[in-house]
Design goal:
This protein has helices at 4-21, 31-38, 75-81, 93-105, 144-153, 174-177, 198-205, 217-227, and strands at 64-68, 85-90, 110-114, 128-133, 154-165, 230-237, 251-257. By secondary structure, it is α/β, with parallel strands linked by helices. The longest helix is centred in the N-terminal third of the chain and has 18 residues, at 4-21.
């Protein structure tokens, strides 16, 4: 079993380095996107290529929005531009610095909090109207606390929009996958800490890459239901460039409501 605190610290350093290397999830939105959000047309991506439907959003002006594990200067500033009261929580100081940079550039008001997506104890219960959770729970070994905490901090009637990786992706042999050949190797759920050796992980991905964990659909969707949520809607999305896009969707995004 992966040690939660070791994973948290390793992934904090890893994502700080990804900011320095310009990972797509660390590149802030531009001024044009902020202008569109101010006009009531925010393009919010929780996965790679398909935005959240505009019809999903509640009235945003004055709404309390938590962008959960969502640093990088993307979702948070766009929500702030709509007039929402925004808090961005992330495990990476460098990712949060991206949000503050956009806020300073475009005169936006948002708060940033350094923390663990599975521990929202810094927030009272029932204080948010909406939680945006882009693909990120593959970087924690246990997601059930994430759903329980999200449910707790939402107000009654509040909603959670959550993106996550299709767990099937983690069953393939990673070396062959890089060549566009998909051969089943790993049983699920997969863990960088348990499914392969540390030496193999470093050889395949590099020592400094974030630790990843697949999660079953039972824990991704069923876990939200167990936490008390009602599932309202969902959609699938595809990767932008990897060959797997020609065969299957790589992501799901769920819309869930606190009754």
């Amino acid at each position: 079993m992966a040690n939660r605190h070791h994973v948290l610290e390793h992934n904090r350093r890893a994502w700080d380095r990804l900011v320095q290397r310009g990972n797509p999830w660390t590149i802030p939105v531009g001024k044009e996107e902020i202008i569109a959000a101010r006009a009531g047309e925010p393009s919010i991506y929780l996965t790679e290529t398909r935005p959240v439907p505009v019809s999903w959003f509640p009235p945003l002006k004055g709404a309390d929005v938590l962008c959960l594990a969502s640093g990088g200067g993307q979702q948070g500033p766009l929500m702030a531009a709509t007039g929402a009261r925004v808090t961005v929580l992330d495990n990476s100081p460098y990712q949060l610095a991206q949000d503050r940079a956009v806020a300073a550039r475009d005169a936006l008001n948002l708060q940033t909090v350094l923390g663990d997506m599975a521990d929202l104890s810094m927030f009272d219960s029932g204080v948010f109207d909406l939680i945006l959770h882009p693909v990120s729970n593959n970087f924690v070994p246990d997601i059930l606390p994430v759903w329980r905490e999200a449910f707790r901090v939402l107000r009654q009637g509040g909603e959670l929009f959550a993106g996550f990786v299709n767990p099937v992706e983690y069953c393939f042999d990673p070396e062959k996958e890089q060549k566009g050949v998909y051969v089943i190797r790993h049983s699920l759920p997969y863990s960088d800490c348990n499914s392969i050796s540390e030496a193999e992980r470093i050889r395949l991905f590099g020592e400094d890459e974030p630790l990843e964990f697949s999660h079953t659909l039972e824990s991704q969707i069923g876990g939200q239901l167990q936490a008390g949520f009602m599932l309202i809607d969902l959609f699938e999305d595809y990767r932008r460039e990897e060959p797997i896009k020609d065969y299957m969707p790589s992501y799901l995004v769920t819309r869930a409501r606190k009754p």
